[in-house]
């Protein structure tokens, strides 16, 4: 099986130190396996994506020497694929229409927020009582067990910890969970390397993959880059855009956060690939 990895930034702001670590890790993993590395622009939430920010990010990657092996794709251009998947889920009974407002969901769920999300109690599982459908939800069932290449065995009770989650939002936008699953399968992605904050999404994505009859990639979630206050460095908390006047310095910093020891030479990326290949979590030939 040919290794195919990807970096999938959301163009809500430029790359920062945290997103560079994720980009570099995914690039290194692909190069260490002699595989292909793709870039997908996850602009499915259009209102949050400033015009032209996708080109800013692509330019940052190019300045760092991280070049994809195929032309990038944009989620905003792939709605027909997501609709086909949703239609299949509805037909198979895995998805249903929901008429609940956020206020109603909050009232039914009670004081059980989970990372800012509300656990949906399944109010509309058996119909909307004539109310118009606002969103489409995935019907969860049971526990998902999976193994991360770095974090090891993981488990999540989807019903208790997540509830039936949204596939298409009330505003008509596609939800991240469905879009990413459809895209990964359509692009033939075998390995997903991304930040540890996204590990919590993996069980939902595996559940969708199984319901759609799609393969489940291998997953590797990398350590997070933390801000001075101890929280994840992110665009939401004001992470500064990468200063690319010295790209090699930024790459060295990102490599060091991944536990690699490289210098500022022009062979930095080649040296990092060699060190990455020696990691215990590196995919071995024939592994699943």
Describe this structure in words.
There is one protein chain. The protein has helices spanning 17-32, 53-63, 79-91, 102-109, 158-161, 176-186, 202-212, 247-257, 268-277; strands spanning 4-7, 36-41, 73-74, 95-98, 113-114, 117-118, 135-138, 143-148, 152-157, 165-168, 191-195, 218-222. With 288 residues, it is α/β, with parallel strands linked by helices. It has two domains: 4-78 and 183-278, 3-Layer(aba) Sandwich (Rossmann fold); 79-168, Glutamyl-tRNA Synthetase, Domain 3 (Glutamyl-tRNA Synthetase, domain 3), CATH 3.90.800. Strands 1-2-3 form a three-stranded parallel β-sheet. It has a three-stranded antiparallel β-sheet with strand order 4-7-10. Helix 1 crosses helix 9.
Q: What is this structure's SSE topology?
A:
Elements: E1 4-7, H1 17-32, E2 36-41, H2 53-63, E3 73-74, H3 79-91, E4 95-98, H4 102-109, E5 113-114, E6 117-118, E7 135-138, E8 143-148, E9 152-157, H5 158-161, E10 165-168, H6 176-186, E11 191-195, H7 202-212, E12 218-222, H8 247-257, H9 268-277
Parallel strand pairs: 1-2, 2-3, 11-12
Antiparallel strand pairs: 4-7, 5-6, 7-10, 8-9
Helix pairs in contact: 1-8, 1-9, 3-6, 6-7
H and E order: EHEHEHEHEEEEEHEHEHEHH
Overall mean confidence score, pLDDT: 90
| Termini gap | 10 Å
Shape: elongated
Number of strands: 12
What value does the Rg take, in angstroms?
Answer: 20 Å
What portion of the residues fall into strands of 2 or more residues? 15-25%
Unreliable segments (pLDDT under 50, ≥5 consecutive)? none
CATH fold annotation of the largest domain: Rossmann fold
Major sheet: arrangement of strands: 1-2-3
**Main sheet properties:** 3 strands, parallel
How many helix segments? Answer: 9
Oligomer: single chain
Estimate the helix proportion, in percent.
25-40%
Q: Architecture of the largest domain in CATH?
A: 3-Layer(aba) Sandwich
Indicate the CATH class of the largest domain: Alpha Beta
What is the CATH superfamily label of the largest domain?
HUPs
- Structural class of the helix and strand makeup? alpha/beta
Number of domains: 2
């Amino acid at each position: 099986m040919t290794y195919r990895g990807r970096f999938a930034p959301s163009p809500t702001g430029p790359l920062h130190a945290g997103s560079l670590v994720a980009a570099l890790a995914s690039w290194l993993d692909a190069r260490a396996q002699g595989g292909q590395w793709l870039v997908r622009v996850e602009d499915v939430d259009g209102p949050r994506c400033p015009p032209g920010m996708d080109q800013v990010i692509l330019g940052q990657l190019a300045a760092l020497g991280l070049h994809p092996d195929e032309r990038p794709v944009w989620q905003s251009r792939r709605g027909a694929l997501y609709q086909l998947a949703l239609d299949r889920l509805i037909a198979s009974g895995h998805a249903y229409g929901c008429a609940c407002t956020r206020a109603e969901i909050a009232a039914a769920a009670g004081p059980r927020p989970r990372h800012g999300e509300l656990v949906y109690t399944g109010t509309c599982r058996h119909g909307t009582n004539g109310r118009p459908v606002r969103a489409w939800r995935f019907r969860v069932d049971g526990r998902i067990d999976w193994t991360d290449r770095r974090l090891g065995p993981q488990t999540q009770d989807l019903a208790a910890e997540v509830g039936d989650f949204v596939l298409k939002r009330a505003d008509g936008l596609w939800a991240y969970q469905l879009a990413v699953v459809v895209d990964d399968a359509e692009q033939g992605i075998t390995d997903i390397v991304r930040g540890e904050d996204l590990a919590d999404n993996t069980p939902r994505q595996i559940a969708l993959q199984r319901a759609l009859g799609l393969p489940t990639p291998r997953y590797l979630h990398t350590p997070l880059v933390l801000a001075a206050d101890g929280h994840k460095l992110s665009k939401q908390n004001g992470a500064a855009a990468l200063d690319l006047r010295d790209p090699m310095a930024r790459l060295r910093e990102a490599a060091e956060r991944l536990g690699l020891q490289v210098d500022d030479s022009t062979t930095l990326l080649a040296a990092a690939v060699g060190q990455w290949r020696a990691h215990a979590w590196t995919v071995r030939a024939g592994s699943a």
